[in-house]
Amino acid sequence: MVRMELLSGTVDRLRAAGCVFAEEEAELLVAEAASAQQLDRLVARRVQGIPLEVVLGWARFCGLRIEVDAGVFVPRRRTTFLVDRAVAVAADRAVAVAVARPGAVVVDLCCGTGAVGVAVAVAVPGVVVHAADIDPVAVACARRNLARVGGHAYCGDLYDALPAELRGRIDLLLVNAPYVPTDEIALMPPEARDHEPRQALDGGPDGVAIHRRVAGSAARWLRPGGYLLIESSRHQAPLTAQAMREGGLDPQVDRSEEYDSTVVTGTRPRTR
Questions:
Q1: Residue 20 sits in which domain range?
Q2: CB-based contacts of 164, cutoff 8 Å, min separation 6
């Protein structure tokens, strides 16, 4: 009876604050709280517009519970497609010997919480995951998440963060870099615009500035036959693919209507 009253009251408060999924969020908040007082504090933070995942301290991603710290980009459901494409590449019999093998190197660049690297490591046992982000707060969060799969996280600007010995040895390079055009950030929901770091959102004038930087140097870090996978958008994918082509990779665009997500895959040719 007490739980039902807490749940009902929480739903009412969330609805009044404009939360679209008030019932689902209330269930999670009530389950997370150890007392009515703690629940009140959690709901108060959510009503202020703080992302639910930050209030809870975790996000559900690819069936996994991923820790999320304040100020770190929250993993989105649409990024599930990036993981799916990475797993599909690893499972392809034509490349399985190279990718789905113990010790294969997977890099999660612009990693945020490290969710993508963790999910791929769980789905493809035996790979070694390295992750990097320019934000030290994100890196600290990623290190905790990656600990469960024996992964490593480094702080720095793109490839500058990675150990030099990975150059030319990466099998899968996975990138969920910011791709919101600078002028469109003001149009984003307040929870993202006001509570996530701008550097995790801002993709430059056309949204693909970081994609170009990643693709331009990827061939030097991938092994021959290795793969770069970048989450993009439907209308930006041609620009992402062009950047890969100019970087010496062979691009392919894949689209998921289920996740409303687009992934561009670039392959480093084995020979030229």
A1: 2-48
A2: none
- String of DSSP letters for 34-67: SSHHHHHHHHHHHHTT--HHHHHTEEEETTEEEE
Residue 98 belongs to domain with CATH number: 3.40.50.150
Look at the chain and report how many structural domains it folds into.
Answer: 2
C-alpha atoms less than 13 angstroms from C-alpha of 228 in its C-beta half-sphere? 33
Summarised one tens digit per residue, pLDDT across range 222-271 is 999 999 999 999 999 999 999 999 999 999 999 999 999 999 999 999 87
The verdict on 42 and 148 lying in the same domain is no
Which parts of 110-221 are beta strand (E)?
128-133, 152-155, 170-175
Per-residue pLDDT of 33-74, as tens digits, reads 888 899 889 989 998 888 999 999 999 999 999 999 999 999
Around 269, how many Cα atoms within 13 Å sit in the side-chain half-sphere? 8
For residue 115, the Cα-to-chain-centroid distance in whole angstroms is 6
If we measure between CA atoms, which residue out of 179, 127, 165 comes closest to residue 149? 127
Q: What is the pTM of this model?
A: 0.90
Residue linked to tokens 């497609």: 81
